[in-house]
Amino acid sequence: MDRDDEDFGEGFIAESHPLRPTHLSVPVSGRPDSRAPSISSSVSDLDVPIYTRETTIPVSAGKGLNGRLAFAIAAAALGSSFQHGYNTGVVNAPQQLIEDWISNLKQNRTGEPTKQSEVTMIWSIAVSIFCVGGMIGGSLVGTVADRFGRKGGLLLNNVLVLATVIFEGCAKTAKSYEMIIIGRFIIGINAGLNAGLAPMYLSEISPIHLRGAVGTVYQLVITMSILVSQILGLEQILGTEDQWPLLLCLTIVPAIFQVVALPLCPESPKYLLLSKGKDMDAQRALAWLRGTIEVHDEMEEMRAEYESVKLVPKVTLKELFVNPALRIPLIIAIMVMFAQQLSGINAVMFFSTKIFTMAQLDKTAAQNATMAVGAMNVVMTFVSLILVEKAGRKTLLLAGFSGMFIDTALLAICLAFADTSRAAAYSSIVLVMTFVILFATGPGSIPWFLVSELFNQSARPAATSVAIAVNWTANFIVSIGFLPLQEALGAHVFIIFATIQAFFVFFIYKKVPETKNKTMEEISSMFRQISYQ
Q1: How far apart (Å, rounded) are the C-alpha atoms in residues 377 and 368?
Q2: pTM of this prediction?
Q3: What separation in angstroms does the CA of 219 have from each of 126, 198, 216, 313, 453?
Q4: What span, in angstroms and rounded, lies between the C-alpha atoms of 503 and 508?
Q5: How far is CA 3 from CA 7, 9, 68, 177, in A?
Q6: Among 24-38, 143-157, 171-185, 394-408, the least confident range
Q7: Maximum CA pair distance of the chain?
Q8: Nearest-CA neighbor of 266 among 201, 344, 200?
Q9: pLDDT tens digit string along 88-132?
Q10: Which of 191, 168, 165 is nearest to 179 (CA)?
């Protein structure tokens, strides 16, 4: 069978053009219209589609979420962002167990007692190299997305998960902490690629009015997977001396799910048409995702975009920085990525257990409270999924960062007195929870998909590579710089984060456009106009 005749499932016909309705103008008053059939030009008339041939295939299935689109979203997000979140949080709970193993292993190798500073250094490398891998993976997003496609890139990326499981799963048996470091590096590359490929795929398969909500799913799954890693890492489950290698290896489960589920879904219609010029394949893919053959309007929009970009050479990294119409959205993309990571969320999450301990909670209660914060992060990210299409991207970013600025300033004050004041300690708990709520409602989720909204098809892969690499670089800076700053400044370290947040509030207010319900051509046109001013 020829590729152009391949079907992605029932629900649409194989002709190159789907059925198109003739429009019957029916006056609202109920009076007959002698002009029918015609296209109504009056706002008081109802435009009723009359299909010219009989068919049992749905031609007007909902423009919103349907079962097939939901399945494609789950296949892409659960198999990709789960790796990102799970491997971010999985090393926290068994940290002491793994450090003890490293200490004993090194002592057996050298025959001398291992210094704690040496163990700390090895552990720090194992944790932070995840971000280094993320930087490399992020920088490869454009190349992989163009060569293998969004879906193809996601599927191929699971090879790295298998390699990670082999290294981390065999590390204890092989008596090699170096294998843990290598595994963390490899899964970092995987997470960096996923951070670009998955939001790109989700954005390109979504209807315009659901683009933000679907894009938020990536961050939602990250928060869910971090919470899962915290729960599984409890001593009562897998956080034991014998079971921690299994805890690390469970990252293979979402990869298996994606390898099974994603092949049942089509490639991004925009990639098929705009990058490969495959009109028929794009139409089939879009019809599968919408659950209807009536995708004429969306296809026409994509064809118009295709006509505007097909004569333009593929955008290079150099052109992103040289062309004003591309440089402006690139700067915005870079800044929102910096804003997300430099907001202080990682620092607040790090401090959370200590803050709960300051409030005189015992170790178990403090650990449970930390998981409650993680659960709240999940809930509020889900809330942002609903709000993003109602309030808009810019509004949620401004509300989130403005609230975080006030919250962080108050947290710095309360933490300074938390050791001596019970009220300050309890206030710190409230402020930590408030901070997480504010972060989750916008700053945590929007940057991931905003990048895909700011660029057209020709520039999107290269721009995504830059933005994702910047995000992981900022993550790395915070991970290696926070502890020294915290030791030197104590609670005053949060003043630095508050200052950074204030700057980003100003930047977002002045420079970040609202992209809600805008087509790619409208967004591109907006930046072209700005560049000529």
Answers
A1: 14
A2: 0.83
A3: 24, 11, 6, 33, 16
A4: 9
A5: 9, 14, 21, 48
A6: 24-38
A7: 99
A8: 201
A9: 989 888 988 999 999 999 999 999 999 998 998 999 899 899 999
A10: 168
